[in-house]
Design goal:
- It is globular, with a radius of gyration of 19 Å.
- α7 links the parallel β6 and β7.
- The chain has about 280 residues and is of the alpha/beta class.
- The chain is built from 12 helices and 10 strands.
- A 10-stranded mixed β-sheet has the order 3-2-1-4-5-10-9-6-7-8, sandwiched between helices.
- α4 crosses α6 and α10 runs parallel beside α12.
- The protein has 2 domains: about 130 residues, HUPs (Rossmann fold, 3-Layer(aba) Sandwich); about 140 residues, HUPs (Rossmann fold).
């Protein structure tokens, strides 16, 4: 269960709309939410007072638009570089999910354009929900695609997807077995008996346990491309994918080179997916 959420406020837009959609989910309704507004540092102290007052007003307006129950929300105003502040506050509060907007940039382009979401994606070990600013419409969370393999990260993704959809009437889970070298065609894989698949069988059992509708798909070709194509073809509202942290403990404060250059599956999907992407995390030692 996601008990604490950090929403990095960037004003009206898809991120707020996505959060409102999440508020329709019973599990999210029980979560404590911190809405964070970051004030960039100013060289002139004389302008700081008015800037803080404006930011406080914007923060109050954001909370009003979101419609969160007052006992469940905490406004927070911090000064500093947004990239650093989001990571620091997430650790301070020990949140179970960071929600923030994204321009869908990756690799060196994101670094050169000072992407906050790319930086947080690089260095935070917290689960993240990334919402592109303007590239798609936000709909109620009914159909959730879960990318699965044999990893512990995959098990965490399944757990999160079950928690989000178990109490949502008419919800559906789309289980995607991310095989990169599938011998059969996609049609043959869909028609095969998924209950014998070591990856899909546990997911099916969990869906049946909570009486959640489901379907199974095994993508043919490159997993990242097929996952994004399936999300588009099936009109998926949310994509859940594991994003492992491969860095050793000594390098936790440094970027992951695969992510930096866009070489990981999770990086490809977060950039190209036609829907919001929830990246689950289990940090490695």
């Amino acid at each position: 269960m996601i008990e604490k959420i950090l929403l990095a406020s960037s004003g009206p837009g898809n991120t707020e709309t996505m959060f409102k959609a999440l508020l329709e989910i019973p599990m999210i309704q029980r979560s404590q939410v911190t809405v964070l507004k970051v004030v960039p540092p100013k060289l002139m102290a004389s302008t700081m007072g008015s800037q803080i007052a404006d930011s406080e007003q914007q923060l109050a307006e954001t909370i009003s638009r979101l419609g969160i129950e007052s006992s469940k929300v905490t406004p927070m105003l911090r000064e500093g570089d947004p990239k650093d502040v989001v990571c620091k506050v997430a650790d301070e509060l020990d949140v179970g999910l960071i929600i923030m907007g994204s321009r869908g940039l990756g690799g060196l382009k994101a670094i050169f354009k000072n992407s906050v979401s790319q930086y947080v994606f690089q260095l935070s070990s917290r689960p993240m929900l990334l919402v592109k600013d303007e590239l798609y419409s936000i709909r109620p969370i009914k159909r959730v695609l879960v990318a699965l393999d044999e990893s512990d990260m995959s098990k965490e993704s399944l757990k999160v997807a079950i928690d989000l959809t178990r109490d949502v009437k008419g919800s559906e889970l789309v289980f995607v077995h991310t095989l990169s070298n599938l011998r059969n065609s996609v049609a043959e894989a869909i028609n095969a008996n998924p209950s014998t698949d070591p990856v899909l069988a546990p997911a099916i059992a969990e869906a049946k346990r909570y009486r959640i509708n489901y379907r199974c798909v095994a993508p043919e070709g490159k997993p990242g491309e097929r996952i994004c194509q399936l999300a588009d073809e099936l009109s998926v509202n949310l994509l859940v994918l594991g994003s492992p942290d491969r860095r050793p403990s000594i390098a936790k404060g440094l970027p992951d080179i695969d992510r930096l250059l866009g070489g990981s599956l999770s990086d490809y999907v977060r950039i190209n997916a036609p829907c919001p992407v929830l990246l689950t995390r289990i940090a490695s030692n």
